[in-house]
Amino acid sequence: MTVTTESVRSALEQDSPERNKIESHLNPVGSFDVADHPVPTGREEIWRFSPLKRLKGLHAEAPFNPSTTSCTWNTPEGVRIEGVSGEEARSLRGMSGLVPNTRFAARVLAEVPDSLLVDVPADLEVAEPIVVSLDGEDASNTEAGHVAMRFGAHSKAIVVINHEGSSAMAAVVEIAVGDGADVTVVSIQDWADDAVHLAHHQARVGRDATYKHAAISFGGDVVRMDANVTYDGPGGSAELLGLYFADAGQHIEHRLFADHNAPQTKSNVLYKGALQGEGAHTVWIGNVLIRKVAEGIETYEENRNLVLTDGCRADSVPNLEIETGEIAGAGHASATARFDDEQLFYLQARGISEKEAQRLVVHGFFNDLIRQVGVPSIEERLLGTVEAELAKNVLKDTMFGTVD
């Protein structure tokens, strides 16, 4: 049977009439039609934190030019990874259940002619991480990309998407996790200081499948990423992790949406961030929707922010939308704070210098989350990156010069 763009669109928009009746101020009703998505003004709830003037028009009408970002990957045995175009590329649009609720995502699906397909067949256990590396060369060139990851039933794989260099990119990443599969997707935003990255990651988790998504943002002028998950049957489990470190002038924004549209499903969200330098700004918006059919689910979302210097701003907004009381558990937590004086005093009382005590506290703040990523090579890299970020400001003599 030939699958067309129109058939995919029709199936997704008509698959669940009850789904389309749900209205959420954080997740507006989606549409594949670009015309249904006005250019954001910044007054919309889902855009009010984003610095639209710094997005280089990616949210609006910026042309999606030929790419100046190189893309390379390894290909473990049994895995298909290649760029596809034509009807095959069009058939992948919406394969995760995505019906775009932003203009940029709708434009990517409608206008980008090619897709990068990562296809892991059923029952295959991939021994090594699949690494897709994107290296940008020109932040003045606005471009866009679509990535489709398909994991067959009972497969097991880790995919790492690594972003470096200078780029202005809008991207949609779709992930379909088959029944009983065990999948980890790690997206690292380690861009140059002039990069702009606007991304939407959408995953559909199969029956009794396990899905882990880790979003790690250090570089870039502006990074805004949506990470959404829905379920394709009972028993699915999703873990959404995030780590970010914003320096002077940076804007890093992460938005999460766990849509519990099936019973006996689980989601756990844990994001941690640190900020230092004048004008550093982070945004974390978490939202969990528990539908009427989602009885017996468990969910928890947590965001922690550590402010290291004056002049920073961290916005953190957790949300729960609950339509049934028949759940196993649901909760959320959010905190933004400076160093804990008692921790510093404890360390300094044992002969540790103030600078070293500060460094140890920051490492301790991130360490448990880093260890949950589950990819040893990435964990070691993150520890080194945190150390490099600290060296920019935290370990200087001027640190905390104005803190009471």
Distance between the first and last residues' Cα: 68 Å
Low-confidence stretches: 1-8, 10-20, 395-404
Summarize the biggest pleated sheet.
16 strands, mixed
Report the helical percentage: 10-25%
Q: Evaluate the radius of gyration.
A: 21 Å
How many strands in all? 16
- Shape call: globular
Strand content: 35-45%
Mean pLDDT: 90
- Return the string of H and E elements: HHEEHHEEEEEEEEEEEEEEHHH
Organism: Nocardioides glacieisoli
Protein name: Fe-S cluster assembly protein SufD
Family: Belongs to the iron-sulfur cluster assembly SufBD family.
Region (Disordered): 1-37
Short description:
Residues 141-365 form the SUF system FeS cluster assembly SufBD core domain. With 404 residues, this protein is of the alpha/beta class.
Q: Can you give a write-up of this model?
A:
Helix content is 18%, strand content 41%. The chain has helices at 5-14, 17-21, 86-91, 103-111, 341-348, 354-372, 376-392; strands spanning 70-73, 80-84, 115-120, 130-151, 156-177, 182-189, 196-205, 210-217, 222-231, 237-246, 251-260, 266-275, 281-290, 298-307, 313-322, 329-337. It has a 16-stranded mixed sheet that branches. Helix 5 (341-348) crosses helix 6 and helix 6 (354-372) runs antiparallel to helix 7. The protein is globular and about 65 Å long.
